[in-house]
């Protein structure tokens, strides 16, 4: 049992690549939590894909024992959080479990968009914040300028900011001392009924679901019978422990502590993140304020390239959903692609990560359809439906109007690229809300439609600013706009995987670009193929892919012209018949390339 005054719970927040995971490594290493021989880079990033991309996807925790300069022993519970906008819900949920944050800012780059987003989440959760300037070993480091920027842009006092090089280990001792001195100890009553907040849960093949908890009040012991307050289910606790970062079993968890429990729970769905866990008998009466469940933002279809692998894909998706509660899915069929799943994601990076994991861990080749967002469709009779897939769009005669999701985007960009960024946002139907300066960098705030952003906005933003811009967004709500469904017809057959929702003013340009691209991507057949883009029954763009032809008149030299004519007429009739019964094969690459439009 640890005295409350000697516990510190904190998270590390920062923009992508500012050195959160490396700083966590140094804190673990300098306190001898892990032996040097077991130490590796990004120790807390356990998934292969995290290590490969060098990003954090899941928030991870570790308990560090530290003896301060004053001779007192402290227990530090550290949560390393993701920096990427798609995993912001991971950050928000970690914030509720701790009392303080280390704000890590790269002393060469300064404050970026996600720095702002993550630090505002920490401020919303009433955290005490200790600013840390990282990467001071680099020649481009400028601590004074960045400290001033933190004060100007974020508005927290950075005069005593700790200067650290997480790579070389300079300043790590000062960081540990600052955690003990400046961050508040947790509060909690040991004798009150048990209240434990469920911070995270994931599936382990041997132990069932492992539940990460933060004890607010009361004591949790091995062998207790506990109840989940959201669904009333009761479980018997088998093990209790802490992460050091390996699992270490302990007898009990007291107030203010962060640890895990296992209770032979079969499904991650039974453990809702943000739920309150209490004792079955003499438990708490009121639940803790939970946090909002994560809402899927982007939807797309996942189909196996080989339709025989559909059952394998179903197993893979079921297993992934065990570990990732933010990923939702349902079955769907498509005329062009066969059976597959319509899946919901938190953003494009989340989509890529899930797709990579399925392809890598389960060895299934996938086709992904165009990512789309959820539209609200209002009918003439006053009813409303949610449209996840453009192919399911109801007949326009019964639709009154459509609403699309809008976001508030914050873009930080060096002055010289500002014009290109403003033009890009304007092209994507953006409305400028604010434009301010922090030093030599501009901060543009825009109201943008989400469907223009999920496609390839981030890639375009990075290319027009040579990689210097940083971008963060949050959903603001729905607004009516003039949207239509554009369908693509190949040989007069609609291809449902290529249908998309577009703004009416953009439909023609988008349609023309799509058919021109498909003309280059679809291989020629023995017959002529029309490729059309249409809105309802009206064709707005068309290209014709000419047929491969044999020179039937090659054997006629000289002689009567009617002989040639007769042979050509015969060939023409054959082609017409072929086109009537022929089937057009659209290769997989064509689907994928056609969906990467907007170049």
For the largest sheet, list the strands in their spatial order: 11-10-16-7-8-15-12-13
Number of helices: 13
Q: What name does the CATH topology of the largest domain carry?
A: Rossmann fold
CATH architecture title of the largest domain: 3-Layer(aba) Sandwich
Which class of the largest domain in CATH terms? Answer: Alpha Beta
Radius of gyration: 29 Å
What is the end-to-end distance? 61 Å
Overview of the molecule:
With 599 residues, the protein is an alpha+beta fold. It folds into five domains: 4-182, 3-Layer(aba) Sandwich (Rossmann fold), CATH 3.40.50; 195-279, Translation factors (Elongation Factor Tu (Ef-tu), domain 3, Beta Barrel), CATH 2.40.30.10; 298-369, Alpha-Beta Plaits (2-Layer Sandwich), CATH 3.30.70.870; 396-481, Alpha-Beta Plaits, CATH 3.30.70; 485-595, 2-Layer Sandwich (Alpha-Beta Plaits). The protein is built from 13 helices and 32 strands. It has an eight-stranded antiparallel beta sheet with strand order 11-10-16-7-8-15-12-13. Strands 2-3-1-4-5-6 form a six-stranded mixed beta sheet, with helices on both faces. Strands 22, 23, 24, 25, 26 and 27 form a six-stranded antiparallel beta sheet that branches. The protein is elongated, with a radius of gyration of 29 Å. The N and C termini lie far apart (61 Å). The mean pLDDT is 79.
């Amino acid at each position: 049992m640890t005295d409350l005054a000697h516990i510190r719970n904190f998270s590390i927040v920062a923009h992508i690549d500012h050195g959160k995971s490396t700083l966590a490594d140094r804190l673990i290493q300098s306190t001898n939590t892990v032996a040097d021989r077991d130490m590796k880079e990004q120790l807390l990033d356990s998934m292969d894909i995290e290590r490969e991309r060098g990003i954090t996807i899941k928030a991870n925790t570790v308990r560090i024992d530290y003896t301060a300069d004053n001779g007192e022993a402290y227990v530090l519970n550290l949560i390393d959080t993701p920096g990427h906008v798609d995993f912001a819900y991971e950050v928000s949920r970690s914030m509720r479990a701790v009392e303080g944050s280390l704000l890590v800012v790269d002393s060469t780059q300064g404050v970026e968009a996600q720095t702002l987003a993550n630090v505002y989440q920490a401020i919303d959760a009433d955290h005490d914040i200790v600013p840390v300037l990282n990467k001071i070993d680099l020649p481009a480091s400028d601590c004074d300028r960045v400290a001033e920027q933190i004060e100007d842009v974020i508005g927290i006092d950075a005069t005593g900011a700790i200067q650290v090089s997480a790579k070389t280990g300079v300043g790590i001792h000062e960081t540990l001392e600052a955690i003990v001195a400046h961050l508040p100890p947790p509060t909690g009553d040991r004798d009150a009924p048990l209240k434990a907040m469920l911070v995270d849960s994931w599936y382990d093949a041997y132990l069932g679901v492992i539940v990460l908890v933060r004890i607010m009040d009361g004591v949790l012991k091995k062998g207790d019978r506990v109840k989940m307050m959201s669904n009333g289910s009761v479980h018997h606790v088998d093990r209790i422990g802490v992460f050091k970062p390996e699992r270490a079993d302990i007898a009990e968890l007291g107030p203010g502590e962060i640890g895990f429990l296992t209770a032979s729970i079969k499904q991650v769905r039974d453990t809702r993140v943000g739920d309150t866990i209490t004792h079955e008998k003499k438990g708490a009466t009121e639940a803790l304020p939970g946090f909002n469940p994560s809402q899927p933002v982007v939807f797309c279809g996942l189909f196996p390239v080989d339709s025989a692998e559909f059952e394998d894909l179903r197993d893979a998706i079921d297993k992934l959903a065990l570990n990732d509660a933010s990923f939702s899915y349902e079955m769907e069929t498509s005329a062009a692609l066969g059976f597959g799943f319509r899946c919901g994601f938190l953003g494009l990076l989340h989509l890529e990560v899930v797709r990579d994991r399925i392809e890598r861990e389960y060895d299934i080749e996938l086709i992904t359809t165009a990512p789309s967002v959820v539209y609200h469709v209002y009918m003439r009779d006053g009813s409303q439906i949610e449209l996840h897939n453009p192919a399911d769009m109801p007949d326009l005669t019964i639709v009154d109007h459509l609403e699309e999701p809008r976001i508030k985007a914050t873009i930080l960009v060096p002055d010289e690229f500002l014009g290109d960024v403003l033009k890009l946002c304007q092209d994507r139907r953006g409305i400028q809300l604010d434009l301010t300066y922090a030093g030599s960098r501009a901060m543009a705030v825009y109201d943008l439609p989400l469907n223009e952003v999920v496609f390839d906005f981030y890639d375009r933003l990075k290319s027009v600013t040579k990689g210097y811009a940083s971008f963060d967004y949050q959903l603001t709500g729905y607004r009516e706009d003039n949207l239509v469904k554009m369908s693509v017809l190949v040989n007069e057959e609609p291809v449902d995987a290529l249908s998309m929702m577009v703004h009416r003013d953009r439909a023609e340009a988008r349609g023309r670009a799509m058919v021109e691209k498909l003309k280059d991507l679809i291989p020629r057949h023995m017959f002529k193929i029309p490729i059309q883009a249409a809105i309802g029954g009206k064709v707005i763009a068309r290209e014709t892919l000419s047929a491969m032809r044999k020179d039937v008149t090659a054997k006629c030299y000289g002689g009567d012209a009617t002989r040639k004519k007769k042979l050509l007429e015969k060939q023409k009739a054959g082609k017409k018949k072929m086109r009537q019964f022929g089937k057009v094969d659209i290769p997989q690459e064509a689907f994928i390339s056609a969906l990467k439009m907007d170049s």
